[in-house]
Amino acid sequence: MAGNNFDGRYPVIFQPGGVDHATNFVDPEEPQKNAPDPAGSGQQPLRTLSEYAGTGLTNPGPAQAEAPGTDAPETDASDAGLGADIEGTVSESRWTARTWAVGLGAIAITFAAAAFCLVAVALIPSASSVDPSTSHGIMVIAWGYAIIPGAPALLAAALALLAGILFLGSRQHRRQAIPLWAGGVVVGLVALSIGIFALFGATLMPEIYYDPSRWNNPRAIPWPAALQRATAAFIVLGLIILAIATVAPPRRNGTPGIPSGKRAVVVGVFLTAAGVWSWFASQLYPLALGQEIQIIGGQEYSQTPWPMTVAETGGSLVMVGAGVLLWGVLLLALRGPREQDALEAASSLE
Question: Taking the complete model, does pTM exceed 0.85, yes or no?
Fold first, then answer.
């Protein structure tokens, strides 16, 4: 019966009874009376059994069928080749030298624009003075001083671009993943250090900030004034870069790491708690609120107590901390705690 039901349009594995009745099939190369003509239906003739065997593809026989409760068969050569192809796809970089050239070129232009905004007053005479006749006798600020806020803004943008291209590059170049990721961490530390230095600059270098002779010189590079506008921007940038580096580092073998929801929650809670602490530093350390009088250039100046200075970082810490905390909550909610644990365990083993 099995031979009478053989359909020459399909391989033996798809015949009634399957491969268990393969010995009872009728050779499809022999003429069959009841087989429909594929040409009459406008379709291409399908492979016969002999043609199928000539392709090099193998059908599993009865001995190869997996019995219930037995272990899965070992991976054959074809599976190994497939794994090699996947491995090659993962390790192969989609970034070329042109990608790096374009990215680093844009970063260099941004750095140059930041430097121009800072030194234009010292290099271009017309940038530090204004002709009253051109403004109807009204005193307006010279354009060189007007673009000073652009220096810290463009510098922060350049550092953000540099950290971004390093982090993205670490996910493209498997062999250089760890060094590129470490370079992004260094950029984050530099940004955070600039913000902290700008925050405590008047305390660390009062002679530069409060010296009247420096402020009265129109050709001096006004980098203290630029730093005073850079505190929040660089602190926020540095915290964001370091948070991303902590939550989603590359694996030990260089493959892209999976963002950890638990790690994001820990980082977010820590930053938020640090911001709340900075807000209440004055209440926690009341004895540190005394002001010290200093004489610089024949004039007296009083420095701001450090608890009040630290309180300025509270908004930046809470903002970044809340964002990272929400990121971690979303990761845990979308993946689930068990799936998150499994992913982190797999990442730790590689």
Answer: no
